[in-house]
């Protein structure tokens, strides 16, 4: 099953003083196992553009909404047997401690 893993910042990162996992090791391991299909960092939020349509009017603004405290800084597309495996993959990602990781399954293909 495919999962989109959003890599996000967090206003309350982990305060544990143990060594953090190395992102290059995490990428290499999951690429080698075929669990990471794609992934990358994103440009900073200052490069973001928000697009909305309200009452037929196009509204375009720079950056995310002002009230946003956490932002998406990257993504990974995972191929895992199930949600439990996707959680284990996310758990080992360094941003599980520095930020937060959101997992969302891709919908099953239409028959």
TrEMBL record:
It comes from the Bacteria. Pfam families: YCII. InterPro entries: Dimeric_a/b-barrel (IPR011008), YCII (IPR005545). Gene3D superfamilies: Dimeric alpha+beta barrel. Residues 39-104 form the YCII-related domain. Belongs to the YciI family. This is YciI family protein. It comes from Nonomuraea rosea.
